[in-house]
Amino acid sequence: MFAYIKGSLEVKTKGYIVIDIGGVGYKIFMSETAISRLGDIGEIVKVHTYLKVKEDEMSLYGFNTNEELRMFELLLSVSGVGAKTAISILSNIEPSSFALAVITNDVNKIKSLPGIGPKGAQRIILELKDKIETDEAVSAEDSLDVKSVAVNTENVNEAISALQVLGYSRKEIEKSLEKADGNMSVEELIKYGLKNLSR
To answer: Virtual CA dihedral for 19, 33, 177, 132, nearest 10 degrees?
Structure first.
């Protein structure tokens, strides 16, 4: 319903902000990290949003980037992960690090996040990897070649999988990595891809 909200930042406090648009204040729940990156009170800010509707309430969640929003939506798709847990995870890990932890089966990194135990970490990895495999099967027929980064194919493949965790299609990802330096690490490739994908 709301793709983003842009207006004057009126309140900036723990757990949420209020943006004023034409005399209406929108209360938007955000991670502590995202709030800290916003401007000062009175400045015009733009926040990507997700509207969560329950039987008895409607809540707006805000994000600085589309990557954070995609990660939030993916976390909500994991059984047992609610909006508060997803926001808490976003406060403590960057989307690129999270995606890398999922594709490398780094249970320790994910279980170190607040509200996530060992079983929860394994479930997140399992469910999000299943999602990638399903998407892979769908897009396998029209896959491109990332020729310019074939220097380290293993790193490229890991980076592609990590970006798929964040909800991008293989075709989009391969296009974003076409001009990447073949000597980049997996995390550098992920960040490079994210930069191009968010344009």
So the answer is: -90
Specify burial of residue 191 (Cβ count, 10 A radius: 0-12, 13-18, 19+). middle
What is the CATH code of the structural domain delimited by 4-63? 2.40.50.140
List Cα–Cα distances, 59 to 26, 70, 173, in angstroms. 10, 17, 31
Question: Which pair of tokens denotes residue 112?
Answer: 């170190």
Residue 5's DSSP bridge partners are: 47
Span(s) in the chain for CATH 2.40.50.140: 4-63
Instruction: Compute the distance between CA of residue 86 and CA of residue 105 in angstroms, rounded to an integer.
Output: 19
- The DSSP line for 106-152 is -HHHHHTSTT--HHHHHHHHHHHHHHHHHHHHHHGGG----GGGGGG
Q: How far apart are CA 48 and CA 73, in angstroms?
A: 12
Q: What is the pLDDT of residues 120-161, one digit of tens each?
A: 999 999 998 877 665 555 444 444 445 444 445 788 888 888
pLDDT in tens, 73-116: 989 999 889 999 999 998 899 888 888 888 889 999 999 998 89
What's the predicted TM-score (pTM) here? 0.74
pLDDT in tens, 150-178: 445 788 888 888 888 888 888 888 889 88
Which SS3 state, helix, strand or coil, does residue 63 take?
A: strand
